[in-house]
Specification:
- With 161 residues, this protein is α/β, with parallel strands linked by helices.
- The protein has a single domain, classed as 5'-nuclease (Rossmann fold), CATH 3.40.50.1010.
- The protein contains seven helices and eight strands, in the order βααβαβββαβαβαβα.
- The protein has helices spanning 12-22, 28-39, 55-63, 86-98, 115-123, 139-142, 155-158; strands spanning 6-11, 41-50, 66-72, 74-75, 81-82, 105-108, 127-132, 148-150.
- The strands form two sheets. Strands 3-2-1-6-7-8 form a six-stranded parallel beta sheet, sandwiched between helices. A two-stranded antiparallel sheet has the order 4-5.
- β2 (41-50), α3 (55-63) and β3 form a beta-alpha-beta unit.
- It is globular, with a radius of gyration of 15 Å.
Length: 161
């Protein structure tokens, strides 16, 4: 029997903000190891806005096993970077589904904008779980009836020591 070939699709901003709002810091290396162990994740796509001052962070993320997918950022009136990656994450997941490059997908986000993607994956028996970085996962994701794991439940496995 072939080993499982599951992929994770991660909304980087949603992950970072969700964990920060809970008051703890994520250890990305431990997260990557946990994803491999818990969900047999072979490839973990991390969708991020590209901000040059974080290039060292990007290098570390790649070194611990994430495949980074960058979105060009723009800045709002207050100078805050915006790099909305939702469409890129959805498009990559749908393309990978049609190309049959993975067995099952894990979506890491609390954002209800991904509910239609989850339903699409359910229709093809391709969703393994949603991992919600926030304890306030969107009701739209909850209504899909997909398995949801709250990252806070496994904080002891993925937080910075």
């Amino acid at each position: 029997m072939n080993p499982e070939n599951n992929f994770a699709y991660i909304d980087g901003a949603n992950l970072h903000k969700g964990v920060a709002d809970l008051g703890w810091e994520l250890d990305y290396k431990r997260l990557r190891l946990w994803l491999s162990s818990k969900y047999k994740i072979k490839r973990a796509y991390l969708f991020l806005g590209l901000i040059p001052k974080y290039k060292d962070l990007y290098t570390r993320l790649q070194e611990v096993g994430f495949t980074l997918v960058f979105k060009e950022t723009i800045y709002d009136g207050e100078g805050k970077a915006k790099g909305n990656c939702d469409a890129d994450l959805v498009l990559r997941t749908v393309c990978d589904t049609y190309e049959n490059v993975f067995d099952k997908a894990v979506i890491i986000s609390s954002d209800g904008d991904y509910a239609s993607l989850v339903k699409f994956l359910q229709g093809r028996n391709k969703i393994l779980a949603i991992v919600s970085p926030s304890n306030h996962c969107s009701v739209l994701l909850k209504r899909t009836s997909a398995r949801i794991l709250y990252l806070d439940w496994v904080k002891f496995k993925v937080n910075k020591k």
